[in-house]
Amino acid sequence: MDSRHESSETLRNKCAACYRQFNKMEHLVEHMRTSYHSVHEPMCGICRKHCRSFESLREHLIGPLPKAECERIFKDRGCDLCLTVLSSRSALWNHREACQFSRSNNGVLCRLANLGIQDELRLDNSRAKVVALACKMVGGGSDGSLDLCARVCLIDEHERIIFHAYVKPQLPVTNYRYETTGLRPEFLREAMPLKQVQRRIQDYLCNGEPIWHIRSRGGRARVLVGHGLDHDLKCLEMEYPPIMIRDTAKYPPLMKTSKLSNSLKYLTKAYLGYDIQTGQQDPYEDCVATLRLYMRMRSQNHDTEDCPLATDPQNRNNFASWRQNELERMTPEKLLEISRSDYYCWCLDSRTSHTNS
Question: If exposure means fewest CB atoms within 10 Å of the residue's CB, which of 230, 270, 322, 351 is most exposed?
Fold first, then answer.
């Protein structure tokens, strides 16, 4: 009788998201207070377990120690790119054709861009609501280790180049890093000065909106997508509001289980199914990869919530200590229902005016 009672108590204290079990309900409440489980977490399509990242979900399905039943079903009809579980093998084959991307055939575009500056940065060009940016760096300083932006590319959501230019660094170049950049001194001789590049890109991103007025995702300013954008913007000597930045290096579902960043090369192979950055690298290819990763994350069909972020003021007291008695009387399912994410899920971009107008 006691053992049955103990097991039912443990089951009652089982997290409805990650399935961890706790001896006491107060421990489960504390777990929910700090875990930020939500409908936005990657979820196993078989057992419905929530995972903190897609890497954690991948380990759950096909890692060194996967859950046996989930592994068996996933190997039969699971997509190893988006980790979706399909209804049948034939459905998987059809899905895989759409899920698998191919490397962009950008040779002609790059050759054209190399002939001169490709520039459509006009404030009246309102088509692009989302743009991806990537830079390629040469080396400065006595040992060539200082990153200097020497090439920049900006594309729209249709993968069209809207700005592609060589950039004249403000410091002398001591290492052109030719093996990866393909850049030679003559390419930068008549290049656009850094300050001019910075001003044109920033004006385009703000789209007529003063940068200090950009406070929400509903204005005219454009969403900026990239990988390691802190570094790129620093090298461009630019600032842009974090609320408008979508960085694939810092997006929690795309990070390692250790919460460190994955490389863009790895993310492209793992989630899009093709290789990039082989040999001499092109910023256009990086732009396309980050844009595709963003679109894949944005297209996830998550349930709607009234208050999506745990950091929003109206959400901070979901698990407040003064509610402890009330929280301990809730079921694990109810606790999950009131729990909120601690990051902004990109699926919410598809529900806002700036991506749909």
Answer: 322
